[in-house]
Amino acid sequence: MPTQLPLVFEAPRRGKPPKHWLDLAPEERVEATVKLGLPKFRADQISRHVFDRLEVDAANFTDLPAAIRADLGEQLFPNLLDQVTVRSTDDGSTLKTLWKLHDGSLLESVLMRYPNRTTLCISSQAGCGMACPFCATGQGGLKRNLSQAEITAQVLAADQQLATGAVPGASGRLNNIVFMGMGEPLANYNAVMGSIRTFVEPSPNGFGMSARHITVSTVGLVPQITKLTEEGLPLTLAVSLHAPDDELRDEIVPINNRWKVDEVVDAAWEYAKKTKRRVSIEYAMMRDINDQVERAELLAKVLKRRGDWGWVHVNLIPLNPTPGSKWTASRKVDEKAFIDTLDRRGVPVTLRDTRGQDIDGACGQLAASQSQA
């Protein structure tokens, strides 16, 4: 277990999420700086503290007039996240952090070091309203959307963790961001896209990441997928399909009652055509629920109708069971049979590496255990 890391933010206790520098577009930061009575060029200096130096305490902005720092901190750098706990596993290469927001809501982020990259899984909502029965977050319900700053602050916090050596063997900044934590990202579209623009904006106005290294996951909100297609950003789209037929998907992914499998896959196919980015089909393997060979055959048939295999990749996910739930991971023999079936049909498929089972690693488990404590 690593030592407790210093707080990135200490949360205020009431009211709406306070407006923060991380909520603002570059031009809005200039306007806010001028309103404080500072010249425009100070906005550039402030952003360099945030995105280059990972510094959010205005008292440490020593290149700004001392007399203005307190007002700057109060008006544009309020506290957002309060670190509740950090759990480490996989010899320190996986770090899961539970954060408390100003209103007591909880969210999670997971930092993972791999041999050639460091990935952060972030949350877009406190809770989730999609109600998937196998998911701890979905069963907890939706508390509220996160603000753009609350989303972006998770990335800032992860880069701070890397800078402090909290993840042994990791160096530099994040390589990848995946919106696969708590919440449905496309149900909080504006805040998610605002944070993504900050992630890809070059220094000094953002983190300067590649859009190709950012993955947005969705259970299949078709109008929002279409909207995302028109954004002109080469993001990776991941669709949490989990079943190839409407009968089963209606049960395990309730949003399917609104947008059916064919509508969701069609929207994903259009995204791939427009962006030239391969779509990931996420498929959580659930014992005796969706892991039969005949469903693998049907999945291949559904995907093949859209065109060449180059547009899609199936990512099988061993279910990280929620304590007390009837939903559990597939048997290894059934996993292999499912993979072999897709392989025979020529469908690109991988089985995701599992991490964090001993630290409540599945989405929402740590928050749920904290709420029940």
From TrEMBL:
Enzyme superclass (EC): transferase
Cofactor: how bound: Binds 1 [4Fe-4S] cluster. The cluster is coordinated with 3 cysteines and an exchangeable S-adenosyl-L-methionine.
EC number: 2.1.1.192
Pfam families from the UniProt entry: Radical_SAM
Domain spans labelled Radical SAM core: 114-358
SUPFAM superfamilies in the record: Radical SAM enzymes
UniProt keyword annotations, A-Z: 4Fe-4S, Cytoplasm, Disulfide bond, Iron, Iron-sulfur, Metal-binding, Methyltransferase, rRNA processing, S-adenosyl-L-methionine, Transferase, tRNA processing
Catalytic activity entry: adenosine(2503) in 23S rRNA + 2 reduced [2Fe-2S]-[ferredoxin] + 2 S-adenosyl-L-methionine = 2-methyladenosine(2503) in 23S rRNA + 5'-deoxyadenosine + L-methionine + 2 oxidized [2Fe-2S]-[ferredoxin] + S-adenosyl-L-homocysteine; adenosine(37) in tRNA + 2 reduced [2Fe-2S]-[ferredoxin] + 2 S-adenosyl-L-methionine = 2-methyladenosine(37) in tRNA + 5'-deoxyadenosine + L-methionine + 2 oxidized [2Fe-2S]-[ferredoxin] + S-adenosyl-L-homocysteine
GO CC, one annotated term: cytoplasm
Residues that hold S-adenosyl-L-methionine according to the record: G183, E184, S217, S240, L241, H242, N320
Active site (record annotation): E108, C363
DNA-binding keyword on record: no
Residues binding [4Fe-4S] cluster: C128, C132, C135
Cofactor(s) recorded in Swiss-Prot or TrEMBL: [4Fe-4S] cluster
Primary site of residence: cytoplasm
UniProt-annotated location(s): Cytoplasm
Keyword Iron among record annotations: yes
UniProt cross-references to Gene3D superfamilies, sorted A to Z: 1.10.150.530, Aldolase class I
HAMAP family listed in its UniProt record: RNA_methyltr_RlmN
Job description of the protein: Specifically methylates position 2 of adenine 2503 in 23S rRNA and position 2 of adenine 37 in tRNAs.
Family, similarity comment: Belongs to the radical SAM superfamily. RlmN family.
Other comments on record: Reaction proceeds by a ping-pong mechanism involving intermediate methylation of a conserved cysteine residue.
Name of this protein: Probable dual-specificity RNA methyltransferase RlmN
Biological source species: Tessaracoccus aquimaris
Gene name as annotated: rlmN
